[in-house]
Design goal:
The chain is α+β, with helices and mostly antiparallel strands and 373 residues long. The chain has a domain of 151 residues: Peroxisomal Thiolase, Chain A, domain 1 (3-Layer(aba) Sandwich). It is 33% helix and 22% strand. It has eleven helices and 13 strands. Helix 6 links the parallel strand 4 and strand 5. The chain is globular. The model has no long low-confidence stretch (mean pLDDT 97). The chain binds octanoyl-coenzyme A. The site of octanoyl-coenzyme A (CO8) has 31 residues, from helix 3 and helix 8.
Length: 373
């Protein structure tokens, strides 16, 4: 068994950002037009009027102030409210591949590695573009990486589950190094006409290089102390989009073919599960919670992260202990905790301990304990 390090991380951030003000203005225009169009039915009590969204609510309930997206115009057009991402020919690199390559190039550079040093690619994300061939194999081809590639989806927890797979492969000597990427175009599967969730997600891509500790030369090394995963079935976050939709075509465009959730239930169920998983993982590794310098938590909701940190520490975490990126990125599904890690790691001295943790649909939870080398 080889010791394993994370030797580099990378991030691709789309050029366009949408503020809460812009998103709510578009949503409220849609609401006014809908209510005007159906005024007679609403007046007759046959239809409920739609309610406006609110910037103040969004910020208070989630901590989100803006989000990056691949296409801004399509989302903000009240007649469309769906990003416009033109289909590409099979001879062009796909958009998930393109994002992955950009994030991977930064991760490779930080790790001091080239594609020739990598033996496998894992694309781990919630929002895969197609059934096959695997996006990971396309990324392999685009970067010129030999070996193997595969895709996996564990919703928001895809990155920690992907990391465990990468760590296992390197530990066992099946690969010298693995590139794990998380290309998320969450806006493609978000219902921008749903007041309860239209503000939640954004787009981004992260990349992580995992390699043998004895071969790593990077200036940014984090030893993987341990990984721990947990899943427990729940319907509270669900998306019924899939290969069998066309076999029940009458329901193909129902709202359940996009992201839907019972946000309150998720909040209540998941926070204690995350705190328990991280606490037990640290205990199994003989590490006291107070020894942990930083928690790079999944970036879904600020209040969730505050509560999880409070449950773990018995007090409020400082922004240095539990950094926040969801204010400008919103929830980028699997990319969120890795964005926090990527942006908030260089200030810590050698020997520092940190926990990278994800949580989301499934339910699925992951914890990765890291020690700076
Ligand atoms: N504007 C104004 N008012 C609103 C709005 C709005 N936009 N939305 C809801 N309200 C109202 C409600 O109608 C309600 O009114 P009333 O009290 O009269 O009934 C009131 O505000 C309170 O509503 P909620 O109880 O729903 O509000 P919460 O305080 O619970 O906040 C949240 C809602 C922000 C959704 C919160 O519950 C939350 O963040 N929960 C956790 C969610 C979470 O982490 N989910 C994980 C999802 S990620 C995942 O794993 C899936 C990945 C797949 C990616 C797919 C990409 C698309």
């Amino acid at each position: 068994m080889f010791d394993v390090v994370i030797s580099g991380t990378g991030l691709y951030t789309p050029a366009n950002s949408i503020s809460n003000e812009e998103l709510v203005a578009s949503f409220n225009t849609y609401v006014h037009r809908y209510n005007e169009k159906h005024a007679a039915a609403i007046e007759a009590g046959e239809l409920q009027p739609l309610a406006e969204s609110s910037v103040a609510f969004i910020e208070k309930a989630s901590g989100i102030k803006s989000r990056y997206v691949i296409d801004k115009d399509g989302i903000l057009d009240p007649e469309r409210m769906v990003p416009r991402i033109p289909e590409r020919s099979n001879d062009e690199w796909g958009i998930l591949c393109e994002m992955s390559v950009k994030a991977a190039q930064e991760a490779l550079a930080r790790a001091g590695r080239t594609p020739a040093d990598i033996d496998g690619v894992i694309v781990a994300c919630s929002n895969l573009q197609r059934a096959y061939p695997a996006v990971a194999i396309e990324v392999q081809a685009a970067l010129g990486i030999k070996g193997f590639g595969f895709d996996m989806n564990v919703a928001c927890s895809s990155a920690t589950f992907g990391l465990q797979n990468a760590v296992n492969a390197v530990q066992l000597g099946q690969a010298r190094a693995i590139l794990m990427v998380n290309p998320e175009i969450c806006s493609g599967h978000l219902n921008f006409r749903d007041r309860d969730s239209h503000f939640i997600f954004g787009d981004a891509c992260t990349a992580v290089i995992v390699e043998r500790a004895d071969q790593a030369t990077s200036a940014h090394q984090w030893q993987v102390v341990g990984t721990k995963l947990l899943t427990e079935f729940s319907n509270n976050i669900r998306n019924n989009f899939g290969f069998l939709n066309r076999a029940a075509e009458e329901q193909m465009s129902n709202p359940d073919k996009l992201f839907v959730q019972e946000g309150r239930k998720v909040f209540r169920d998941v926070c204690p599960m995350v705190a328990e998983l991280i606490a037990s993982h640290l205990e199994e590794n003989g590490i006291g919670v107070q020894q942990v310098r930083r928690f790079w938590l999944h970036q879904a909701n600020l209040n969730m992260n505050l509560l999880i940190a409070r449950k773990l520490l018995g007090r409020d975490a400082t922004p240095e202990e539990a950094p926040v990126i969801l204010d400008t990125y919103a929830n980028t599904s699997s990319a969120g905790s890795v964005i926090a890690f990527h942006k908030h790691q260089d200030d810590l001295p050698a020997g520092s301990l940190g926990v990278l943790s994800s949580f989301g649909a499934g339910y699925s939870i992951g914890s990765v304990i890291l020690r700076k080398r």
